[in-house]
Design a protein that fits this description.
CATH architecture of the largest domain in chain A: 3-Layer(aba) Sandwich
Family (chains A, B): Belongs to the TRAFAC class TrmE-Era-EngA-EngB-Septin-like GTPase superfamily. Septin GTPase family.
CATH topology of the largest domain in chain A: Rossmann fold
Protein name (chains A, B): Septin
Strand order of the largest sheet of chain A: 2-3-1-4-5-6
Oligomer: homodimer
Distance between the termini of chain A: 61 Å
Shape of chain A: globular
Keywords (chains A, B): Cell cycle, Cell division, Cytoplasm, GTP-binding, Nucleotide-binding
Helix content of chain A: 40-55%
Subcellular location (chains A, B): Cytoplasm
GO molecular function, one term (chains A, B): GTP binding
Radius of gyration of chain A: 25 Å
Largest sheet of chain A: 6 strands, mixed
CATH superfamily of the largest domain in chain A: P-loop containing nucleotide triphosphate hydrolases
Chain lengths: ~400, ~400
C-alpha cells in the first residue's frame, strides 16, 4: 500500500489516498439523465373505476383527451381492446417517456370468460418483440415496450376479491408486476377500508397470487426508511381516489371531490393512499419495477421460449434423422447441434422446476375450490389455467 | 392539464405540479452503489516502461506483490503471457472490483512478429464467453470479463511510433478502447514532450489507428467542463511518470522520484499528465469506457460471430438438401430456417459495410507503404492484416 500522498493539484478538494472511483455512481447518474427514462404502466380493471382519472392525477397530465365513451349496447359485446398512450414529460431536467397501456372495457361484457387473455397476449407480444430485437444483428435503438407495472383496480363494492380479479391476477402474475389498488375509496369509511384491505391481502395470499414484492430493506438503511417501507407494505392494496378537478379546501386549492358533506382531498394521506401510491410508483420504486421486469419476468419468458424452440428443433432433427459431423465449434448454446447437451441439461432442470411449480399450484388450486364460497360467483374456476400450465401447454403445442 | 395542487403531505418539500420522477436518476444512483462496480483495465507495451508502477500509482494499491522478473535469457524466447490481477477496493462506500490484465514480456523477444495475437485472442475470448453467457438459458450472475480499456505504453525513446506500436494498435483498435500513454516522461524535457505528442498524434491519424474517442461535449455543458475536455483531447498521448515511493518535496510528502537535480512529482501537473490520465480513466470517463466496450466493440464482435454462424448453417443446410415445411413461427432470427430471409438481408448489408471498410483500409494500407520510411524498422508490414480483413477471413474459414 502506498503512503500518504498530498494531491497538490486537481482543485485541492481531494482526500489523501483518494483514487476517485467513488464518482462512478455520479457518472452513471449523469449518463442516465442524458439518455432519458421510459416507463410503461398498464392499468386494468372494470371500466368506471377511475383508471384514467387516477393516471391523470398521478402524472398531472391529460392522457385521454380524445377518449370516446361507448354506450351500454356497444359495451355488451365489446372485446377487450388494448390502447396505448405515450407522453413525453420533463421535470427538473429529467425526461420521461411515459406509456400508459389501457385495457378499456375490461369486465364490461356479460360473459367475461378469458377476458384476461388479450392482456396476457399483449404482454407476451412485447416480450417476444424484445426477444427478437435483442437476438437480432443490429441492437442499436431497440424500442423497449415491455410492461413494467400493472395497476389492477379492485372494485370497492366487492366482498374482497371477485373471481374475475383472481383469474386475471393469476393469469398475469408471472408476466408483470401487479400492484393492486382499491378503487374509488371515497365510498368507504376508514374502518371499511381497513377491513377490506386485510380481507384482500388474505385472499391474495390464499389464492397464491404473486403481486409485486417491494424489495427488502438493507440492514444499513436508516430507521425512517425502514418505517416508510413497513407502512408501504401495510398499505396494499392502495386505497385511491382520483380527481381531475381542483377545489378549494381550507383556503387552499387542492385536487379533490366536493361532496355536500365535505371535501375529499386526493393528496391528503388521511383521506386515501394516493400520495403513498405515487411515491412508491414514481419516486422510490420505479427503477425497481423496471429491473424486476427485465431480470425476472422477461427472463422467465425468454427461458420458456428457448426451451420450446430447442425441443422443436431437436424433434425436427430426429425426424430428419440427420447424422451430423461432430466437432463444429459453435459459440451459442441456443443454436442446435452444438452445445446441445448443455442446453438440454438446462432444459431438464427447468422442466423439473416447472413440474415442481405445477405440483405446488395444484395444491393451491384444490384449496381454491374448497374456499369457492368466498366468491360472488365462480363460473370459470375450472377453466382457469395456471400460468405455468398455460405456458407449458404452449410449449407442447410448439412441438 | 391540472391546475395547481398544494401537496399538503409528503414532507412539504414538493413543488407545485411536481410528480416526482425527477428522482429516477437518484434511484439509478442508489441501485448502482448497492450492486457495486467492476472495471477491467489492460496494460500493454514493452516491459520496463513502468506499466506495473503506473497501475499501482493510479489505484494506490500493490497489484504485483508476487511478481517474478525474468532474466534476459528467459525473455528472449518468452511468449506473450497474459496475467490477470483482481482487487476489491472501496472508497466512500463505493465498491469496485478492479481487474488488471497484464501482457508481460510484450516486445521483449528479438522477433516480435504477431506478438499482438495472443492479446487480440484474449480479448476475443472474453467476448466469446460473454456471448455464450448472454445467449444461455440462465443469465443470472454472468461474470463479465470484457476488457474495457487498454493503456498502451509508448517508449519515450522512439522517434514517434515504432512499427510494433502501429501493428499492435491496428490489430486491437476494433476490439478495445486504446488509450496511448507516453511512458517514463521524466526522460524528456517539456519541449520534447510537446513535440513527441504532436508527432504521435499525427502518426495515429496517418495510419488510421482508432484510439478511444472522448465523447463530444453537449452544448449545455458549462465552460469549465468544455475547457477541461479540450485540454484532455490535447493531452493525447498522456505523458506519465509512475512512482511507488514517497519523497519529501517542499516540506510535503509526495509520490515522486528523487534525482540529484530535483524531485519529479507524479501528481504535479507541471511535471506530467498523471493526474489528467487518472481523472479521465477513473473520475470522468470510466463509465463511458464501459459503455463503448459494450455498445460498440462487443456488438461488432457479436455481429461478426452471428454472421459467420449463419453462413455456416446455411451452407450445411444446403449440403443436406433439407426441404423444410414453411410456416413454423420461430421468434428468433438467429435460429436457422426461420427468419432466415431477414437475417440474410442484414448479413448482406453488413457484408457491404465490411467491403466498404476494407476498401477504405486498403487505401490506408497503400498510404502506409508510402510512408514506411517513418519507421525504425518495418519488417512485418506486409503480413499485417487489418482487423476487418482478419475477421472476414475468420468468417470464410468457418464456411
Amino acid at each position: 500500500m502506498a503512503a500518504n500522498s498530498e494531491a497538490n493539484s486537481d482543485g485541492g478538494d481531494q482526500d489523501k489516498e483518494y483514487v476517485g472511483f467513488a464518482t462512478l455512481p455520479n457518472q452513471v447518474h449523469r449518463k442516465s439523465v442524458k439518455k432519458g427514462f421510459d416507463f410503461t404502466l398498464m392499468v386494468a380493471g372494470e371500466s368506471g373505476l377511475g383508471k384514467s382519472t387516477l393516471v391523470n392525477s398521478l402524472f398531472l397530465t391529460d392522457l385521454y383527451k380524445d377518449r370516446k365513451l361507448l354506450n351500454a349496447e356497444e359495451r355488451i359485446t365489446q372485446t377487450v381492446e388494448i390502447t396505448k398512450h405515450t407522453v413525453d414529460i420533463e421535470e427538473k431536467g429529467v425526461k420521461l417517456k411515459l406509456t400508459i397501456v389501457d385495457t378499456p372495457g375490461f369486465g364490461d361484457a356479460v360473459n367475461n370468460t378469458e377476458c384476461w387473455k388479450s392482456v396476457a397476449d399483449y404482454i407476451d407480444q412485447q416480450f417476444e418483440q424484445y426477444f427478437r430485437d435483442e437476438s437480432g444483428l443490429n441492437r442499436k435503438n431497440i424500442q423497449d415496450n415491455r410492461v413494467h407495472c400493472c395497476l389492477y383496480f379492485i372494485s370497492p363494492f366487492g366482498h374482497g376479491l371477485r373471481p374475475l380479479d383472481v383469474e386475471f391476477m393469476k393469469a398475469l402474475h408471472e408476466k408483470v408486476n401487479i400492484v393492486p389498488v382499491l378503487a374509488k375509496a371515497d365510498t368507504l369509511t376508514p374502518g371499511e377500508v381497513k377491513k377490506k384491505k386485510i380481507k384482500i391481502r388474505e385472499e391474495i395470499e390464499q389464492y397464491g397470487i404473486k403481486i409485486y414484492q417491494f424489495p427488502d430493506c438493507d440492514s444499513d438503511e436508516d430507521e425512517d426508511f425502514k418505517q416508510q417501507d413497513h407502512e408501504l407494505k401495510e398499505s396494499i392494496p392502495f386505497a385511491v381516489i382520483g380527481s381531475n378537478t381542483v377545489v378549494e379546501a381550507k383556503g387552499k386549492r387542492v385536487r379533490g371531490r366536493l361532496y355536500p358533506w365535505g371535501i375529499v382531498e386526493v393528496e391528503n394521506p388521511a383521506h386515501c393512499d394516493f400520495v403513498k401510491l405515487r411515491n412508491m410508483l414514481v419516486r422510490t420504486h420505479m427503477q425497481d419495477l423496471k429491473d424486476v421486469t427485465r431480470e425476472t419476468h422477461y427472463e422467465n419468458y425468454r427461458a420458456q421460449c428457448i426451451q420450446s424452440m430447442t425441443r422443436m428443433v431437436v424433434k425436427e432433427r430426429n425426424r430428419n434423422k440427420l447424422t451430423r459431423e461432430s466437432g463444429t465449434d459453435f459459440p451459442i448454446p441456443v443454436v442446435p447441434g452444438v452445445a446441445e447437451t448443455e442446453t438440454e441439461k438446462l432444459i431438464r432442470e427447468k422442466d423439473e422446476e416447472v413440474r415442481h411449480a405445477d405440483h405446488e399450484l395444484e395444491s393451491h388450486h384444490d384449496h381454491e375450490h374448497d374456499s369457492a364460497h368466498n366468491f360472488d360467483h365462480h363460473e370459470h374456476s375450472d377453466r382457469q389455467p395456471s400460468p405455468e400450465r398455460h405456458s407449458d401447454h404452449k410449449g407442447d403445442e410448439a412441438l
